[in-house]
Amino acid sequence: MRTLGLDVGTKTIGVAASDELGWTAQGVETIRRDSENPESDWQKLKKLITELEINKVVVGLPKNMNGTIGPSGVACQQFAEEVKERFGLPVIMWDERLTTVAAEKMLIAADMSRKKRKKVIDKMAAVMILQGYLDSSS
């Protein structure tokens, strides 16, 4: 069984999954959210959860630098609650402060063009969220 990592934003959801031993996180995809049909986002997640045999979900929690939770954090908490209700899986909220910044720096260091970075940044942030969780629980 595997763990799914999600970097939830208003326009995209970065998705990563652990290996079966729960040691490493790999990027899966970036889901482009459909504001016209939000149900399609849930259908895509359901498909991934089924195909990858997911048994736990880690959702990034964007906190302010002082540790408080702002509107983005509240939206992620609501998203996590809906994941629990829809899929009946345990959901862990994981502090994601600076993961997108770290992912951006890693991609720049890999000499990736700005256009390509934009396509994978959310997936990389999901990898960093999930890997942080996996490292802490091993």
UniProtKB/TrEMBL annotation:
<dbReference type="Pfam" id="PF03652">
    <property type="entry name" value="RuvX"/>
</dbReference>
<dbReference type="GO" id="GO:0004386">
    <property type="term" value="F:helicase activity"/>
</dbReference>
<comment type="function">
    <text>Could be a nuclease involved in processing of the 5'-end of pre-16S rRNA.</text>
</comment>
<dbReference type="GO" id="GO:0016788">
    <property type="term" value="F:hydrolase activity, acting on ester bonds"/>
</dbReference>
<keyword id="KW-0540">Nuclease</keyword>
<feature type="domain" description="YqgF/RNase H-like">
    <location>
        <begin position="1"/>
        <end position="103"/>
    </location>
</feature>
<dbReference type="GO" id="GO:0000967">
    <property type="term" value="P:rRNA 5'-end processing"/>
</dbReference>
<keyword id="KW-0067">ATP-binding</keyword>
<keyword id="KW-0690">Ribosome biogenesis</keyword>
<dbReference type="InterPro" id="IPR037027">
    <property type="entry name" value="YqgF/RNaseH-like_dom_sf"/>
</dbReference>
<dbReference type="GO" id="GO:0004518">
    <property type="term" value="F:nuclease activity"/>
</dbReference>
<dbReference type="GO" id="GO:0005829">
    <property type="term" value="C:cytosol"/>
</dbReference>
<keyword id="KW-0347">Helicase</keyword>
<keyword id="KW-0547">Nucleotide-binding</keyword>
<dbReference type="InterPro" id="IPR005227">
    <property type="entry name" value="YqgF"/>
</dbReference>
<dbReference type="InterPro" id="IPR006641">
    <property type="entry name" value="YqgF/RNaseH-like_dom"/>
</dbReference>
<keyword id="KW-0963">Cytoplasm</keyword>
<protein>
    <recommendedName>
        <fullName>Putative pre-16S rRNA nuclease</fullName>
        <ecNumber>3.1.-.-</ecNumber>
    </recommendedName>
</protein>
<dbReference type="InterPro" id="IPR012337">
    <property type="entry name" value="RNaseH-like_sf"/>
</dbReference>
<comment type="similarity">
    <text>Belongs to the YqgF HJR family.</text>
</comment>
<keyword id="KW-0378">Hydrolase</keyword>
